[in-house]
Write a structure and sequence with these properties.
Layout (H helix, E strand, L loop, with lengths): L2 E6 L12 H10 L3 E6 L12 E6 L7 H14 L1 E3 L2 H7 L4 H7 L8 E3 L16 E5 L9 E3 L4 H13 L4 E5 L3 H4 L2 E7 L2 E8 L20 E2 L4 H12 L9 E8 L5 E7 L14 H12 L1
Parallel strand pairs: 1-2, 1-3, 3-4
Antiparallel strand pairs: 5-8, 6-7, 6-8, 9-10, 9-12, 10-11, 12-13
Helix pairs in contact: 1-8, 2-3
Length: 292
């Protein structure tokens, strides 16, 4: 039988936070695939022993993105990796939003500040709320929402990112998130799997290094035609998109009500199968088709 490794993180003494992981392992095994959850940075794993390595919940990668992308490239040399290593490297740095914008995809406007860039007076907006976060992050890690009155706190935030060698990104806070929320369109095997909506993650006044609830108020969502059309444009602009097995497109509404791409999750997006159990069958079918 074909062998599949579902790459995850090492939770230590705590339970694994990926609620979908045991569901997928069981469903794949029931479908005739030998599947097991494997920790991505376990030095003792022989990745060549698997016919497919499916990146699922490597949720500690953003703390050591260079190490993770190097692992992905080594793994891809000995077996099939989904998503491909080139896509992983491109997507682990949120400067990919600039590539999408250059391709004509509507995205949330973003400026970047590398560790060596000067902290000039024009770095932070003078009007309106804005968000500061690192270009390599997950679950709102090191992200915070500021008003112009909070400039001193934002500058300290930027300084902390610089100290840790992280490139910062500054975006206007999209006000529709508070009212409409953020939508996640999930794709698997080139088809829409399902969609979900969550409420605002960043509350005003929450410190950048405080723990945050990554998916507050999560609920099923029926995507609009405009949302699916934008998701298709974003995915078409991904380099080496032909090798994609899965994707999640996170959308918000701009001031004019039209959707914008907030993020494109091509590495280890939470599938939210616990919210959409009917989607397990499509995921299993897509994985077995990839093996064939």
């Amino acid at each position: 039988m074909p062998r599949v490794a579902l790459a995850t993180y090492d939770p230590g003494t705590e339970p694994n936070k990926d609620r979908d992981l045991p569901v997928l392992v069981r469903a794949l095994n029931e479908a005739g695939v030998t599947a097991e959850a494997v920790v991505w940075d376990d030095a003792g794993v022989d990745w060549a022993a698997y016919d497919l390595v499916l990146i699922r919940s490597t949720w500690d990668y953003s703390w050591r993105a260079a190490e993770f992308t190097a692992w992905a490239e080594r793994c891809a040399k000995v077996t099939r990796l989904a998503n491909p290593a080139s896509v992983v490297r491109w997507n682990t740095d949120k400067r990919y939003l600039g590539d999408l914008a250059a391709a004509g995809v509507p995205v949330v406007p973003t400026r970047y500040l590398a560790p060596g860039d000067p902290l000039g007076p024009d770095v932070l907006p003078e009007r309106g709320e804005y968000v500061v976060k690192p270009t390599s992050g997950a679950g709102a890690r090191y992200a915070a929402r500021y008003t112009p009155d909070g400039r001193d706190d934002a500058v300290r935030h930027l300084a902390r990112l610089r100290e840790e060698g992280l490139t910062a990104m500054v975006q206007p806070y999209v006000r529709s998130i508070d009212a409409v929320g953020e939508r996640a369109l999930q794709y698997f095997g080139g088809r829409l799997l399902h969609a979900s909506r969550k409420r605002a993650v960043l509350a005003p006044g929450t410190a950048f290094d405080a723990d945050k609830v990554a998916h507050p108020g999560l609920e099923p969502w029926l995507p609009t035609a405009a949302e699916t059309a934008l998701a298709a444009r974003a995915l078409a602009a991904v380099p080496d998109a032909s090798g994609l097995l899965y994707a999640r497109v996170d959308l918000v509404d701009g001031d004019d009500g039209a959707p914008l791409v907030l993020e494109l999750e091509l590495v280890e997006p939470n599938l939210f199968l616990f919210l959409h159990p009917e989607s397990v069958r499509q995921v299993v079918a897509s994985v077995t088709a990839a093996l064939a």
